Amino acid sequence: MEREKLIDKIQKLIGLSRSPNENEAGAAAEKVQALLVEHNLSMSDVKAQAIRSEAEPIKEEFGIGSKTIPIWKALLMQGICDANYVSCMRSKYSGNQVFTLIGREGSIIACRHLYSYLEECVERECQRVMSAEK
Fold first, then answer.
1. Domain, as residue range, for 64
2. Which of 1, 9, 73, 84 is the most exposed place for a label (fewest CB within 10 A)?
3. Is the same domain home to 28 and 93?
4. Residues 25 and 76 in one domain
C-alpha cells in the first residue's frame, strides 16, 4: 500500500478510535497499532503527513457571477487575500470574471467567507444611503 494512502487510512482509524461505541473504538485503536507496527511507522509520521497535507497550497476559482468585476470588489478581495497570505488573480472563466485564489485551504475559505460578508455589508449600506437620499 502506498505510504500516503496508508497514513490516510491510519488517520481515519484514529478518528474512529474516538467513537462513543467502546467496541468500535477499541477495534480501531488495535488496527492503528497493528498497521503502525506492520509498516514500521510511528505516530509522528502520521502527524507529519497531516501537517504536510495542510500546508500544501491549493488553487480555487471564486466567481461572483458577472462579466466584469467592479474595481471596489477587486480591491476588497485583494485586501482580504493580502491579510490572509493568499495570492489573488482575476481571470475569465466561461465568459465570467472570477478570482483565482492560491494558498492554504483554510486561508482560502476564510477569504471567501470574509469577501462574501463584506461585499454584502457594502451593498446593503449603499442601498440604505441611496434610499435615504430619495
1. 57-133
2. 1
3. no
4. no
β strands within 25-125, DSSP E: 58-63, 87-93, 96-103
Q: Do both 38 and 61 map to the same domain?
A: no
In contact, 53 and 47? CB cutoff 8 Å: no
pTM to 2 decimal places = 0.57
pLDDT value, residue 1: 54
- Count the domains in the chain: 2
| DSSP 8-state secondary structure symbol assigned to residue 61 | E
- What are the average pLDDT values for consecutive 10-residue runs of the chain, which has 134 residues? 81 83 85 88 80 71 81 94 92 82 90 94 94 84
Distance in angstroms (rounded) separating the CA atoms of residues 72 and 4:
43
